[in-house]
Amino acid sequence: MDQEAQAKYGPWALITGATSGIGRELARQLASNHIHIVAVGRRHAHLDELATELKTEFGVTVLPVPADLRVPEAIQTIVSSTEGLDIGLVILNAGAELTGSFVHTDETAHLQLVQLNAVAPMQLAQYYGRRLAARGRGGLMFVSSLFAYQGVPYVAHYAATKAYLLSLGEALHVELKPYGVDVLVLSPGLTNTEMTANMDIDFSKLPLIPQQPQQVAAVGLQALGKKATVVSGLLNKVMAWENRLLPRATPVSLLGFLIKRALKRGACPEGKVA
Ligand SMILES: NC(=O)c1ccc[n+]([C@@H]2O[C@H](COP(=O)([O-])OP(=O)(O)OC[C@H]3O[C@@H](n4cnc5c(N)ncnc54)[C@H](OP(=O)(O)O)[C@@H]3O)[C@@H](O)[C@H]2O)c1
Question: What is the distance in A from the centroid of ligand 1 to the CA of 93?
Fold first, then answer.
């Protein structure tokens, strides 16, 4: 990151979901560019560990903000914690998955998923979007997914929340440009993180090449200010693009077939799905 970008996106960056995976790596890479971090996540110990690590390695300050983004009050907690800080970059990365037959999964889990993956990023984008626009420079990054580019059976609602972020972010890229605010939607494909390790899918049965969070974070930070959207990884880019060339139903049926075969026992009760 050059000095101009550091001035634009610093001195503080806010990252939701900074305790592990892609968000943690984004925090590390920004800290290596001398940007202080407001780190949001539920796990207090992980937040404190990150603060110590980034202070020791890069000499930056981390402000830990413990918050559960499935709870609406979390937004106010984050807003109050950042009132006096000059935030130049906001990364809306926190997210969770929900795998299995849509009709057999719990409604509460779906409501929490939409709150975490869609409602909270929308509210934070609006609040910090206003602040960044008033500041006249800055960046806003949404972490979406390759699954945003098509319907994904058995991960249907997760993919729908990611499509929401993709649509919101690419529109805001145009709306906020006149204010000097760069908006990017970063779409990772399969990435080796806690989320995928805990999913009810055997990814070895799918034609996907996993990436490391370090690679994904670097792709996002390199594309910020240059593009509206970026898909991380060559094969993933091809998969996102082929959807535009094929009839829309084709990749949806194909991925549905592949994922159903790769589901771990219990994620899709056989005989119950119509
Ligand atoms: N890994 C992949 O293959 C992949 C692919 C496409 C997109 N993505 C997206 O990348 C983003 C990061 O995921 P990851 O793969 O890096 O997984 P991860 O290691 O599990 O990280 C998820 C992060 O989100 C935070 N989070 C989860 N639930 C939260 C809640 N209720 N409130 C506040 N924070 C919460 C977690 O922190 P706490 O647990 O401490 O709260 C953690 O920091 C997600 O939006 C995910 O959808 C991942």
Answer: 7
Torsion (CA) 17, 20, 26, 31 in degrees, nearest 10 = 100
Nearest atom (ligand 1) to Cα of 192: 1
- Structure-block tokens of residue 217: 């974070």
Ligand 1 lined by 232 (C-beta under 6 Å) = no
- The length of the chain is 274
**C-beta of 21 in contact with ligand 1 (< 6 A):** yes
- pLDDT tens column, 186-204: 999 999 999 999 999 999 9
Backbone phi and psi for residue 132, each to the nearest 5 degrees, phi listed first? -70, -40
Contact 153, 252 (CB under 8 A): yes
Domains and their CATH numbers in the chain: 3-262 (3.40.50.720)
How far, in Å, is the centroid of ligand 1 from the Cα of 18? 8
CA of 272 to the centre of ligand 1 (A): 30
Q: Read off the tokens for 255.
A: 């991925």
For ligand 1, whether the C-beta of 165 sits within 6 Å is: no
Contacts with 31 (C-beta within 8 Å, 6 or more apart), sequence order: 37, 54, 57, 58, 60, 62
Q: What is the mean pLDDT of residues 110-124?
A: 98
Chain segment 131-141, per-residue pLDDT in tens: 999 999 999 99
Q: Residue 270 — very low, low, confident or very high, per pLDDT cuts 50/70/90?
A: low
202 in contact with ligand 1, CB cutoff 6 A? no
Q: What burial class does residue 24 get, using C-beta atoms within 10 Å of its C-beta: 0-12 exposed, 13-18 middle, 19+ buried?
A: buried
